[in-house]
Amino acid sequence: MLAGITTLNENTYNQTTAYHEQHLLIPRYRIEQEKFETEMIRFYRARDSVQYQLEQLRDQTAVNNGLRQAQRFTLSIQLLTSHEIEIAINDAVANGQNIEAAALDVLSTYSELTITLGVNKWSLQQKHIKELCHTLLWHLMST
Fold it and tell me: How far is CA 6 from CA 17, 58, 64, 72, 132, in A?
């Protein structure tokens, strides 16, 4: 199986070999209040890196495959930079959760809510939300 960032027509960019059993091991630990700012800085840096990568892929896809295919990246950027996601992650870290665990929990909860509530824009994009979460976590764990 290949993992990467997938467009609507199933083209995969940044491909790497992956297996169904492969998971990122997300560390879970409590942080002290004085580490809050450091954790949030790590989040913003990772978010900015992922956003830049998604913007590049969006532009490349628009040129090569048209605007409809590029829409997948636009939606991912909107989710990644949404105020609600940022506030939820901020709150989790303020309550002592490390940034990797906070990002995973918030994006997973958001993903589950879109299915439950039937938010059309995202309910069909479950796979893409998981890819976005994986990419963000990979960037966080690389810092």
Answer: 14, 11, 14, 8, 10
Cα separation values, 74 from 1, 45, 62, 103, 132, Å:
25, 19, 11, 20, 12
Q: Is 123 helix (H, G, I), strand (E, B) or coil?
A: helix
Q: Is residue 24 within 8 Å of 137, Cβ to Cβ?
A: yes
Q: Which residue is associated with the tokens 């938010």?
A: 119
Cα–Cα distance between 16 and 30 in angstroms, integer?
32
Return averaged pLDDT per consecutive 10 residues of the chain, 143 residues in all: 46 43 75 96 96 94 86 88 95 96 91 66 65 89 81
